[in-house]
Amino acid sequence: MGGSVRDVKSKAELDEAVSGGSPVVLHFWASWCEASKHMDQLFSHLATDFPHTHFLRVEAEEQPEISETYSVSAVPFFVFFKDGKTVDTLEGADPSSLANKVSKVAGSINPGGAASPASLGMAAGSAVLETVKELAQENGSSKDKTKVQQGLSSNLKNRLQELVNSHPVLLFMKGSPEEPKCGFSSKVVDILKEEKVKFGSFDILSDSEVREGLKKFSNWPTFPQLYCKGELLGGCDIAIAMHESGELKDVFKDHGIDIIDEADITDSGNAKGGISKSTDLSTTLTSRLESLVNSGSVMLFMKGKPDAPKCGFSRKVVDILRQENVPFESFDILTDEEVRQGLKVYSNWSSYPQLYIKGELIGGSDIVLEMQKSGELQKTLQEKGVLPKETIEDRLKKLIASSPVMLFMKGTPDAPRCGFSSKVVNALREEGVVDFGHFDILSDDEVRQGIKVFSNWPTFPQLYYKSELIGGCDIIMELRNNGELKSTLSE
């Protein structure tokens, strides 16, 4: 073993290593994933610290048979074996958990001592140690994660404030202006170039702490996010609307943002939705790729077929599209090497799967999954006419049913924006009702006005239980004073 990491090239090779009975730690990674690269540094040094354990590495997309066996749908992903059996798994970049799980399966270097963030020993250089510390801080223990979800640490808040103020115009995006990693980011880049303004950018895919923290900092759940003089303007849809109406130009002018000469603007090429046409592709191949990309309203380039995916990443996107009830076409890139390699250049996207909606690149499995979780995917499909647009009544029903106890209020439970909302939050907490959903009606005027009609209740807050309206502040206070609130919310 010798304390080194070995790349696995076949399932037979892996099976042989596992059947030997010695502890085995298997790392599924991808060359395009920065988190995989960071975790691989830690993985290598753990291999040095535990020389009697096999440390194996698999390129997840290049070994679909192995990835499929262990249901790998995201990287980094780790599988732990002992005595020839799978005993544990770990998904995501979590240094402390990886070190502790390795210690558990291999036997701790210092019995009784926890490996956190890792037992790196003298083999780790200062740069690697610093990287591990940063990763541990980003991902933390489950306790730390809970704390981050409740609010931002002062250090992170200061860091985000410094970032948004670092340029007069700053774009938080996926990828870089030269190589956007999603069509929405690409659109905003093109808009800024058309507006002829200098702008800074930050690739949120390169830093999970910034990526997650900024959602809370800005109270804006998706990316890209565009800032001007430290103030959030909005995301892709708002940037497009402001650009088309001329409002964006006025905002830049009002804030003294200088217009730059044509000569200083980097040509974005004939880019559309993240697709950069390349002179490296023949006219025939370019034409063929364009035809394929536009052969369906929703087009998925994947490994295998929808009913028989050949990698976990492709399977994940197929599952998401089916969950959203989206009709889609697909192309198996394993059947055509010319398309497989050519599409990487055509789309400026180096991995698979690739999802397109109405000819525009959306992204790969990670981005599609994030868009589904945030609701952005359904919104995009509706705006593109692939799915029927959701009515305000449908939306309100979903919101009301999203939690057994649901409070429509001004602000949030931790930061109410009116005394009546604050009173109801305190009443719920005093009665031990802490697990309740909430919606800030100040953040969405459509919901704010619509729910008044829907509920036939003109004021806020409004409290619902199992989709039935309980009432507003006065009724909640009366129920609490009569000792009936808790029982009402548990019937």
From TrEMBL:
<keyword id="KW-0479">Metal-binding</keyword>
<dbReference type="GO" id="GO:0006879">
    <property type="term" value="P:intracellular iron ion homeostasis"/>
</dbReference>
<dbReference type="GO" id="GO:0051536">
    <property type="term" value="F:iron-sulfur cluster binding"/>
</dbReference>
<dbReference type="InterPro" id="IPR002109">
    <property type="entry name" value="Glutaredoxin"/>
</dbReference>
<dbReference type="InterPro" id="IPR036249">
    <property type="entry name" value="Thioredoxin-like_sf"/>
</dbReference>
<protein>
    <recommendedName>
        <fullName>Thioredoxin domain-containing protein</fullName>
    </recommendedName>
</protein>
<dbReference type="InterPro" id="IPR013766">
    <property type="entry name" value="Thioredoxin_domain"/>
</dbReference>
<dbReference type="GO" id="GO:0005634">
    <property type="term" value="C:nucleus"/>
</dbReference>
<dbReference type="GO" id="GO:0046872">
    <property type="term" value="F:metal ion binding"/>
</dbReference>
<dbReference type="Pfam" id="PF00462">
    <property type="entry name" value="Glutaredoxin"/>
</dbReference>
<dbReference type="GO" id="GO:0005829">
    <property type="term" value="C:cytosol"/>
</dbReference>
<feature type="domain" description="Thioredoxin">
    <location>
        <begin position="1"/>
        <end position="107"/>
    </location>
</feature>
<dbReference type="InterPro" id="IPR004480">
    <property type="entry name" value="Monothiol_GRX-rel"/>
</dbReference>
<keyword id="KW-0408">Iron</keyword>
<comment type="similarity">
    <text>Belongs to the glutaredoxin family. CGFS subfamily.</text>
</comment>
<dbReference type="Pfam" id="PF00085">
    <property type="entry name" value="Thioredoxin"/>
</dbReference>
<keyword id="KW-0411">Iron-sulfur</keyword>
<dbReference type="InterPro" id="IPR033658">
    <property type="entry name" value="GRX_PICOT-like"/>
</dbReference>
